[in-house]
């Protein structure tokens, strides 16, 4: 699917929600889209590890880390697992690490920043709920579109006219 978030905003202004422009690109793919799958986890990426080993074809993993940037919720090894399982992209309201390697992987990754510190592994977190950050609700099953211009979310699948 070829798209521009600018064009989608112009063509579907009543159907898109624009995420606040606070995210940076860290993956090797700058344009990605798919159905939203949600996680909520704070300074513990156990659930991220579990989710990226599941089939992610046509999906974008949206991880609400509470905007906490003291520990990285995604690194190169988990990003590699996500690529192997077909995930289109990952958006993290938090930090990532191993960005040099991640930038070479065929997956879109957007996060607030990078930090070298790994997370705790306590198995704590939730999945499948609506998460809110960047001024937008991310509902499981909705659609996320991301490119160098930003991130937008829609309840329905959009196409460029």
Write the SSE topology.
Layout: H1 5-11, E1 16-18, E2 24-25, E3 32-40, H2 46-51, E4 59-64, E5 72-74, H3 76-84, E6 89-96, H4 99-102, E7 108-114, E8 126-127, E9 131-133, E10 136-138, E11 143-147, E12 150-154
Parallel strand pairs: 3-4, 4-6, 5-6, 6-7
Antiparallel strand pairs: 1-12, 2-7, 3-8, 3-11, 9-10, 11-12
Question: How would you characterize this protein structure?
Answer:
It is a single chain. With 161 residues, this protein is an alpha/beta fold. It has one domain: Ribonuclease E inhibitor RraA/RraA-like (Glucose Oxidase, domain 1, 3-Layer(bba) Sandwich), CATH 3.50.30.40. 16% of the residues lie in helices and 35% in strands. It has four helices and twelve strands; from the N terminus they run αβββαββαβαββββββ. The chain has helices at residues 5-11, 46-51, 76-84, 99-102; strands spanning 16-18, 24-25, 32-40, 59-64, 72-74, 89-96, 108-114, 126-127, 131-133, 136-138, 143-147, 150-154. Strands 1, 2, 3, 4, 5, 6, 7, 8, 11 and 12 form a ten-stranded mixed sheet that branches. α2 (46-51) links the parallel β3 and β4. It is globular, with a radius of gyration of 14 Å. The model has no long low-confidence stretch (mean pLDDT 96).
């Amino acid at each position: 699917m070829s798209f521009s978030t600018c064009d989608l905003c112009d063509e579907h202004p009543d159907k898109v929600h624009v995420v606040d422009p606070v995210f940076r690109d860290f993956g090797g793919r700058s344009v990605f889209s798919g159905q939203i799958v949600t996680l909520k986890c704070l300074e513990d990426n156990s659930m991220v590890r579990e989710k990226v080993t599941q089939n992610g074809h046509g999906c974008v993993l949206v991880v609400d880390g509470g905007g906490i940037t003291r520990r990285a919720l995604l690194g190169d090894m988990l990003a590699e697992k996500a690529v192997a399982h077909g995930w289109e992209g990952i958006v993290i309201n938090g930090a990532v690490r191993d960005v040099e390697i991640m930038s070479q992987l065929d997956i879109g990754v957007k996060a607030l920043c990078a930090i070298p510190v790994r997370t705790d592994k306590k198995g704590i977190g939730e999945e499948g709920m609506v998460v809110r950050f960047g001024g937008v609700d991310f509902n499981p099953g909705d659609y996320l579109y991301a490119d160098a211009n930003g991130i937008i979310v829609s309840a329905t699948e959009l196409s460029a006219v």
